[in-house]
Amino acid sequence: MDLNFQINKREKLSDQLYGQLLKKIVAGELKEGDKLPSENEIAQAFQVSRPVIREALMRLQADGLIYSRQGAGSFVKARPPEGLIKFTAPSDIAGLLRCFEARLPLEGAIASLAAQRATEEDLKAIESALIKMEDIMNKGAIADKADFDFHMAIANAAGNEFCVSILSTLHTAMRSGMRVALNITKTGSKERLKKVQEEHRTIYDAIAIGDVTAADLAMRYHIQSARTRLMNHQRGA
């Protein structure tokens, strides 16, 4: 396998290495079951330290893309969809996934608060963003802004200004992750599109009836499912 890695010193080295190994997996240069180059080979080709290599490999393993066998090395476990590197730079993927990881408990709690505190006005704002998102998606366009507005409307409904502030801080990373995920969904089946819409509708319904537990679970399920769709080319829905 060609180990001609490119380094940009302005970007985090472990993210770059993660992205370039990911790119080789997506492109099929490294197939399921293939053994990755050794740490020594990667160190020589990428000119980075062992801690950088281990951080990149740990992230790839945590994201379900590789697995390790003691004394044997690391092997490819799964191949993400091609759209993952078509719609964003490979070196950005690790950061996008860390954003999903942070959102999972955070937005679950926010949805739970919204189920407790949402006013009629809040519910109208959430539903309005949801309807707009569905309309844009049904027209074959990318609804990342409407998707983000939906999540922000829920944060506003939580009645805690820090929830709004935190999501605002995550705006760029969230929109980027949504854009990639929605682009992949757009190229998939109608069932996948319907599934994405149903996940959002389930979140809204749980908040609208004031079901705290269901809102938390629905939000967590949606974020985890979006992350899975992002990383697994075999997941049809």
UniProtKB/TrEMBL annotation:
The organism's taxonomic lineage, starting at the top: Bacteria, Pseudomonadati, Pseudomonadota, Gammaproteobacteria, Thiotrichales
Signal peptide span: none
PROSITE patterns in UniProt: HTH_GNTR
Transmembrane region(s): none
GO molecular function: DNA binding; DNA-binding transcription factor activity
Keywords carried by this UniProt record: DNA-binding, Transcription, Transcription regulation
Gene3D superfamilies the UniProt entry points to: GntR ligand-binding domain-like (1.20.120.530), Winged helix-like DNA-binding domain superfamily/Winged helix DNA-binding domain (1.10.10.10)
Species per Swiss-Prot/TrEMBL record: Leucothrix arctica
Name of the protein in its database record: FadR family transcriptional regulator
InterPro entries, sorted: GntR_C, TF_FadR/GntR_C, Tscrpt_reg_HTH_GntR, WH-like_DNA-bd_sf, WH_DNA-bd_sf
Pfam families: FCD (PF07729), GntR (PF00392)
